[in-house]
Structures are given as structure tokens and as C-alpha cells.
What we know:
Elements (H helix, E strand, L loop, with lengths): L2 H7 L4 H8 L5 E5 L5 H14 L8 E4 L3 H15 L8 E3 L1 H11 L1 H4 L6 E3 L1 H14 L9 H13 L4 H7 L3 H19 L2 E3 H14 L1 H10 L2 E4 L7 H11 L9 E6 L14 H4 L1 H4 L4 E5 L7 H11 L20 E6 L2 H18 L7 E5 L5 H11 L3 E3 L9 H14 L4 H7 L9 H14 L3 H9 L13 H22 L4 H11 L2 H6 L4 H23 L5 H9 L15 E5 L8 E6 L16 H15 L2 E10 L1 E4 L2 E4 L4 H5 L5 E5 L1 H9 L14 H11 L54 H5 L30 E4 L3 E9 L6 E6 L4 E5 L5 E3 L1
Parallel strand pairs: 1-7, 1-8, 2-3, 2-6, 4-5, 6-7, 9-14, 9-17, 10-12, 10-13, 11-12, 13-14
Antiparallel strand pairs: 15-16, 18-19, 18-22, 19-20, 20-21
Helix pairs in contact: 1-3, 2-3, 3-4, 5-11, 7-8, 7-10, 8-10, 9-10, 11-12, 11-13, 16-28, 17-18, 19-20, 19-23, 19-24, 21-22, 22-23, 23-24, 24-26
The site of adenosine-5'-triphosphate (ATP) has 18 residues, from helix 3.
Keywords: ATP-binding, DNA-binding, Helicase, Hydrolase, Isomerase, Nucleotide-binding
InterPro entries: DExx_box_DNA_helicase_dom_sf, DNA_helicase_UvrD-like_C, DNA_helicase_UvrD/REP, P-loop_NTPase, UvrD-like_ATP-bd
Family: Belongs to the helicase family. UvrD subfamily.
Amino acid sequence: MDSRVQRIVAGLNPQQLEAVTHSGAPLLVVAGAGSGKTRVLTSRIGYLIASGRAAPGQILAITFTNKAAREMRERLESALGGSAIRTMWVSTFHSACVRILRSEHDALGMRSTFTIYDAQDAQRLMKLVCREENIDIRAHPPKSLSRRVSDLKNDLVTPEQAADDAADQDSQVLAHAYAAYQIRLRQANAMDFDDLIMSTVDVLRSHPDVADHYRRRFRHILVDEYQDTNRAQYELVRALTGTAEDDNHGELTVVGDADQSIYAFRGATIRNIEDFEKDFPEARTILLEQNYRSTQSILSAANGIIANNSGRRPKRLWTDRGDGEKIVGYVADSEADESAFVVSEIDRLRDDAGISYGDVAVFYRTNAQSRAVEDMFVRSGIPYRVIGGTRFYERREIKDALAYLHAIVNRDDTVSIRRILNMPKRGLGAKSEEAVAMHAARWDVSFGAALCDVGDPHPERGPVSGIGKKASATMAGFVSMLESGREMAEAGAAPDAILDFAMEESGYLDMLRSSDDPQDESRLENLAELHSVAVDFHKANPDATLADWLDQVSLVSDADQLADGDEGEVTLMTVHTAKGLEFPVVFVTGLEDGTFPHMRSLIDPAELAEERRLAYVAVTRARQRLYITRAAARASWGAPQEFPPSRFIEEIPDSLIDWRRSESSADAMRRSGGRTGTWGSGGRRRSESFGGGYGDELDDGPVVGSGKGFVPGKLGVDAAKQKRRGKQAGAARGANRSGAANASAGVGESVSDAAAGSPGLGAADGAGPNAGPSVPDTYGLAVGDSVVHKSFGRGKIVAFEGTGRNTTARVTFSSGQTKRLALRFAPLEKI
Ligand SMILES: Nc1ncnc2c1ncn2[C@@H]1O[C@H](COP(=O)(O)OP(=O)(O)OP(=O)(O)O)[C@@H](O)[C@H]1O
Ligand SMILES: [Mg+2]
């Protein structure tokens, strides 16, 4: 045997070895957490290449995050030698699709310079569509339309099909908006995240020659985390692999664990894993049963939890690593006390058990919960990184800067151009903008093309009417500035140079420099950070273009922020983001019914089952030590509220848990008004100021300067001005205070959206501080009332729950969903 092959298969157990060396029929590896599925996938690629069964260029491996792709690449590089793998594709679904679409844009009828719209851009475009199509945005909020269009695309439903299927007026409006949105998207030469997948499937299905080309190329397709693929991704895999009837069908390997499926709200369907054998009758299934990650105590806890989900295939996971430490449980009286416990345990483990900060991860259900933990970490000087939260690339100033660059690359990019047309203020009013939009509509061209007609009328279309002299001159100047940027890009200027040009030339930097708003100072710092990202990209990819950089930026996801070599920091993240990872020490916090499982899931068995899988994922990230904590009272929407223990705690056999502080002592403590814990006694009661903080920062989150690796760019920012506040990972600077509020719309692979709680989170409805305590319980609403909600559209109140400030309404929306909404915050209007 080739010595490389020997090295690759060494140490694999018999089932793993079988999976790695399997040949021919489609292969499904289903197994519980930590059983080596990802390792099998990586080893299989190494084996295929080292044994000569495949050339690197014939392999397409799909991972869930860019970071996982990078790691897989690195492993293979060291196993096979760097140059051997250059032609191999290891990437996420979205990145692979962008690569395909950029080369197959002709088949698609688009130009290769197309822009990728994130969820925010998509919503902006939907807003424009609603305005132009006279859609009543009170009854059909753009955000909710946008989310529903995303769902349709994840199911590969075209606008035509949506129109055919539309049985009621609400779905007709949706179908109409979808069709109009799609036209605008094409006109803007743009694609949203869901389009990336759907269009690729479309191209492969409608162009057999293109499909054949990729099938000949990719002889082996391998997919990790298969349980979280949605219908569109499944069809993509099928189209790329071909079926047994196709001449050139490739070999398919998928690995997954139905118990870890946690993206149902984004359209992921366990069905893809459960029906694999039906879809591929000749398929081979291999089960892995040995867990190499965790101790027996941790495994037993995980099994205890997941066993409560019905309709699953029971698994027998075992480990030879011994029982290990007991699971440590702690009942805090508040979230501050809970965080204090985490801090004191981390200190203790460092002193007594040789654990370093980098070995520790703290998980929570939604981003907003990081605040309490962060406060305590800052006060005690524990270095930490928050993964997720307001994503750096979603900050206003960063979106603005990128919009300039997108507008330079793609002159038809409506959303970007309209975003920056009067940013900084150029004295262009809504009327002038509307005149351009009307010209665009009249001639059926993009907004960008119409804008060019202002200063330099097209021979056929002529000038734009209804625009004053001054506005005309300003618009012409704006167009020519973009044109100069485009010339720079075409001449091959580096992305950072073009960024400099756009930010200076547009006056954007001057606007920030001359402001005395401290937020603007932070915005300058963030732009400097963006500048360094561009510089780094250029250094690493000297031949890459501005468009290449923008692609990379568009596809960044939260989990990608986990930089390597971060030994010295505790990692804070949501459970969604933790998928596929492992840490020696894990704290799962906020284990309360209403927090984790999330409030919304308590009335819906399917959602509760998904929460349980989430808990299973959380617990199985731990290698040696697992902590489970809960706060008996937690600030909830502004006021401390008591929460019962999470049912997931009760599902763990009590004999496995070493309770450091029991229910009864916490209760007694709370009743006597006393406080315990290292920090609890000194601190102001966090919960009192909690609500206010939320509302203030709802839009952008506090803009906090970055720490590590900051290089002041040419943008002229003094690094010393940086406010340090814990270390934040990669691009995510500053913890998000409005994580839940930003949670909406499944953005491609942006895990943050998932992580922050899923679309339709009750708490996400603007946790503002405005509502006072004196408002009557039901706010003038009654059971049976028809209401409209900003995101969910029309609905009917079916019940009220709770009293006073905590009153919630159960509302069944026309989409069929029932939501529980806190009346103080939910923008419910009676109709
Ligand atoms: N045969 C083996 N011998 C030793 N260690 C192994 C073996 N197989 C896997 N491992 C180790 O076990 C751990 C878990 O493996 P891996 O991450 O591949 O599991 P997984 O099934 O993908 O987990 P998850 O379901 O969480 O994604 C890793 O540290 C991996 O290196
Ligand atoms: Mg894995």
C-alpha cells in the first residue's frame, strides 16, 4: 500500500475504513455526534487521491461553513502535499454555486459581474417592488414577503408555480411580489442567496451540456452535515451527481446525523437524510457507533435528552474514554449570577485542571444572551471572543462602502446605487430619485442605466424629465465618479485602492471626519478595518479582482469568524454556530423553559423537537467537561421574570449531575433577597437596565472598535482611539445588543441569522423600552380581533396569556403559523 494511503487509513475503525474505501454506489454515513463523520469525509478524499482512484480536480466537497472548508483543505494539504489539492473544490454550497454561475452566466442570461444581495439588500429591493407595484405594505410587509420568497426558492418554486398554486389573495400577492422582485433582481444584474442555489439547479437542468460538463468533471461529490440541506441543495447535489441512468454520473457520499438537524426554519429537511435510501435505491448505508469525542457521562446526558424525540432511529453510541467528570449543574438566581459562576469555574479550571481559556466555550440560545456573560468577563478580565451578533458586514457604514464598490463593479446594481445616491448627502431629494426610477420603468432599464441618461442621454431614450439643473449636475458627477472607479478596477487596481478612492472621492470619509458624533468615530474605525481586510485579501491573492474580493465578502458567515490559533480566549457563541465544533470544556447556559427551549417552541411539538436536537448538538460539543446552568429569574423583555428549569435538564439522568447549587438553595436565596456568587453581590442588578439598553441600540448595535490585528489603513484613523472591549473575533466587532432583532430571514449560510433565533421570534419584535408599565394588559385588543403584524402580515388573535407587562397574545397568521407575541413590543395593529 502507498505509504500515504497507509497514513490516511491508520487508526480508523472498521466501519470508518469501510466508508473511506467504499466504491461505486451512493454512500450514506449516518451516525451520532463525534463519531468521526467529518473525519471519514476528509479521509475518504485523501484516500481517493492517494490511491489514484481520483484526481484532485475530480472532487467536489461541500462543507457547512467556509471555515470548515478551510480546515478540510488544510488537513488534506498536510496529508497529500499542497500542490496536489489545488484543483479540488472544497467549499460551501453557496461558494460552489457562485463559482459555477460566474462561469456559466451566459447560459443564465446574466453578465458575469452580477452582484450578490444579502437578506438586507433583498428586503430593500422588495420594498422598492412593493412601492412600484402598489402592494399594501401594512398588510404585506416587505420583510415578510422577502422571507416567504426565500422559502419558496429553497423549495425551488418559481414565480409561475407560485402564481399557479396561489389559492387565496394573500398568496396571490406573494406570487405577484415574487415575480416582480425577480424581474427587478435580474434588471439589477443581481442574485440573492437563495438564487445562487436555485439558479445553479436551473442552469444544470435546462442545459444538459453544462450539466454534462460538471458531471464529467466532478467524479466524486461529498457532502458534510447532510441533515441540514434543504430541497434546493438536495436537487443541486442530484443534478451535479446525475443518476444511475446518466452516462457520466459521479459517486456521491453524504454524511449526517438526523438528530442534529437544526435548520428546519431555513427549509432544511431531515427528509433528505431519511429518504436517501429511497431516492438512491442502490445506496449503501454505514453506521458509526463509536464516539471519539466525549466522555461517557457527556454521551449519556446527550442520549438522555435526544431519546425524548419520537420517530427517530435509536442509536447506540459508545466511547472507550471512560466516565470522566460528572456534569456540573448550577442554578443561578439571575443571569448575572449565572455568568459569575461561569467566570469562577473558568478561573478554578485554569488553576486546578490545567485548562486554558482557549479550551472553553460558552453557549447560549440567542445572541442577546451574550451580554450578561460579556459584562462579567470584562469585569473579571477574562479574554473572550463573541462569534456572531451584528455582523461586521451588516453595519451601516460597511454596507455603504461595499455599495460603492458593488455599484462600481455592476453599473445596474439598483439596491447599491440607490443606497448611496444621497449618502453622503448631495442634496438629491426623493423627487429626483423618483424621476429616475420612472424613467427606468418607462424604458424598462435598470435604475443605473436611467441615471446615466440624466447627464448623458441615451439616443433612443432621451433625457430624464422632472429633474432640476442642480440635481442633474450632481447626478452626472455621481455617475462619473463611479465610472472612474470602474476604470480603476478594469485597469487592475487593488481592491483597497479602489475603496480609498470611493470613500474619499464621494466625500463619505469627510462626512464622518467632520462629525462630532462618537458613533461616527467608530464608523471610521470600522472602515479602516474594512480597508485592512482589503489589503490582506490583496496580499493573499495578488491577481484577484475587486469583484473577487466582493464575492468573498458576500459569502462570509458567522462561523467563519472563528480564527485559527486563538488559544488564549474563551469562545462565546450560539449553539447554532457551534455545529460541527468541539471544545474540552463547554458551558451550556440559559437552560430554562422559555429560553432554551425557546418560548416559541413550547406550544409546537415540531419546534420543540428541533430545540431538543439543538440541545443535543450543544451537549455533544464537549470533550471532557460539561456545565449546564440556568437562571431562576432572567431579564425578559425589560423586566426580571421567573423561568422554570429547562425540560432538557430534567431529561438528563440526575445521577450524572453534580449539582453545585441546587434549586432549593437558589430559591431560598432569591426569596430572602440575598445574593451569592463571586460577583453577584457587588453588581447592579443587570436586569434593571437591561431593557433600556436593548432599545437604544436596536438598529446598529454599539459600534465598538476592534482589537486584534488592527492596522490603521490609509483611511487615517488613529489606532489609539480604539476602544477595547474584550476581543471580538475576526470581522465581528462589538457584541450585538439586538441579535434577536436582527434575527430574521435566513441569509444564505449566515449562521448568525439562525443563531440569533429563527425568523418569527416573539422577542424579536423590537425589544424597545417605550412601553410603560401602566398600559392595560391587552392594549385594547380582544380575542378574535384581526390584526396586522409588521413581519408576519395579517392574523387573528386566538388567545391572551400572562398579565400586565408580560401579556402575550397568541396570533394565528394567514401563513398558517401561530406565534406568541409580547404585546408590549409586538407591532400588532388592529384592522
Ligand atoms: N478513528 C478515530 N480515532 C481517533 N480519533 C477519531 C477517530 N475518528 C474520529 N476521531 C476524532 O473524534 C472527534 C470527532 O470527530 P468528527 O468531528 O469527525 O465527528 P463528527 O461525527 O463529524 O461529529 P459531529 O456530528 O459533531 O459533526 C475528532 O476529534 C476526531 O479527530
Ligand atoms: Mg462533523
